[in-house]
Amino acid sequence: MPEPRADRSTGGAARTSGRGDLARARHAARRLALASLFEAEFGQRTAAAVLERHLAETEGDPETAVHARLLVRAVDAHRDRVDAQIEAAAPQYPVVTLARMDRVLLRLGITEVLHSPATPARVAIAEWVELARVYGGDPARRLVNGVLGRVARETSAERSDEPNRNPDPDEPAGLQEGAGKWRPPTSG
Question: Residue 181: in which H helix or E strand, if any?
């Protein structure tokens, strides 16, 4: 299984603004977040510290850095809730017994599905399923697809039960969309 690596393909070069560039930046950010959280699973450094090291080495696109930092922070902020959702969606796979890569893929995928209003759930699921295929093989791909699909369906059903749901933009636990970029959760 290949180890996730920092994506160096977004380094240095100036880019024109566009939907494709944003998609590339977010894909690279997902890979950086995955590499950082995976390395942090071994307990030597925090995911945030690992991410900052990767970012310093790659000198990549600012949009990539912002998105990667927000993913890593969001996983850290929501870890307990996300782990509970993994256990609820796949009770036969307790979080503590999952392979490190599978655990990190699920944590990141669920976090993005639930806490990134800027990314449609189907896009986040497709991205994380592809990363699971690359870094975990077919069994990981099926697990990630099943768990993320179930979480997205359940969340969608919950939200449809609340027709006048108006998310609080100051909610400290969520990541909110602003001018095409995520904002970090507010502390307060």
Answer: strand 181-183
Q: Is residue 138 part of a domain?
A: yes
pLDDT band with cut points at 50, 70 and 90 for residue 18: low
pLDDT in tens, 162-177: 544 444 444 333 443 3
Taking the alpha carbons at both ends of the chain, their separation in whole angstroms is: 41
Predicted model pTM: 0.76
Of 57, 14, 1, which Cα lies nearest the Cα of 32? Answer: 57
Q: Is 3 left (phi over 0), alpha (psi -120 to 50) or beta?
A: beta
Residue 167 is assigned to a structural domain of this protein: no
Total of domains in the chain: 1
Integer Rg of the chain from CA: 16
**Considering the domain boundaries, does residue 171 fall inside one?**
no
pLDDT higher than threshold 90 for residue 102:
yes
